[in-house]
Amino acid sequence: MSKKQQFTLEYPVRCSPSILFEFLSTPAGLQEWFADKVDERDNVFSFSWNGSIDKAEVTESEEDKFIRFHWLHAPTEEYFEFRIEKSEVTNQTILVIKDFAEKSEVKDQSQLWGYQVKDLFHRLGN
């Protein structure tokens, strides 16, 4: 099996970092746009899509800055991360997503993130 590579996506967002962080780090927030159902217990999030469940552990987070998840089935070095940055030029909030995918799947994965972020923006009123 070939090693997955990291890729990064950036999306400008029109909302405060604290509101955005709620949507990225809480079961209720993530359930609004990321998965059909989200539960959390002891820092492990259960994400449900069409009846199938996948679990990810929060490995690092800093309030209103970033949260990093590790899929329990994935190699240790792989994760997905939501980071909130401020553009120094425009002072706009930027959502930075880091994820891993096979080289041949990066485009599809990026597109999938794009659809999900579109849902997030809809919920945020962007």
From TrEMBL:
Domain START-like positions: 1-125
Domain of life: Bacteria
Pfam families: START_2 (PF19569)
InterPro entries hit by this protein: START-like_dom_sf, START_2
Protein name according to UniProt: START-like domain-containing protein
UniProt source species: Pseudobacter ginsenosidimutans
Species classification: Bacteria, Pseudomonadati, Bacteroidota, Chitinophagia, Chitinophagales
